[in-house]
Amino acid sequence: MELKAKAFKYGDDINTDYIISGKYKFKSADMEAMAHHAMEELDPHYYEKVKPEGGFLVAGTNFGMGSSREQAPLVLIHSNTKAVIAKTFARIFYRNAINTGLPVIECDTDLIDDGDELSVDLENGVLLNLTKGTEIDFPPLPPVMAQLLADGGLVEHFKKHGGFNL
Q: pTM of this prediction?
């Protein structure tokens, strides 16, 4: 799976409340409506920036820390975030992202700036920074996780295969 989009870069320790504030948690189960509030605690214009063309959310360390909230990766998917690229992830966010079908890439993000055009080859573990002409290698996902992503997440995998069939 190859993805191309612009980078929208933020810092370290982005918690799930920054991704989707808890104040919206019980207001709606409509992820399209909730996506309008994605990242608004850090960037009130994130949705308007990423929705039309799609984009990569780029961050530093410990992305997705905090409460385990399935809505966090779901609002990113519905806001048209193509993948999250970070130095490290909180493990519960990482797992929730794979289970909901949001690609997550762990690599050094120091050489990626806000607005850079990126191309990501998930199968081969290569990120090209098209703006700077540089390449960043990252470990590809294990085959089981790659298959879950290709199926659109764990629920879609179950629907497609009638159970857990990996």
A: 0.94
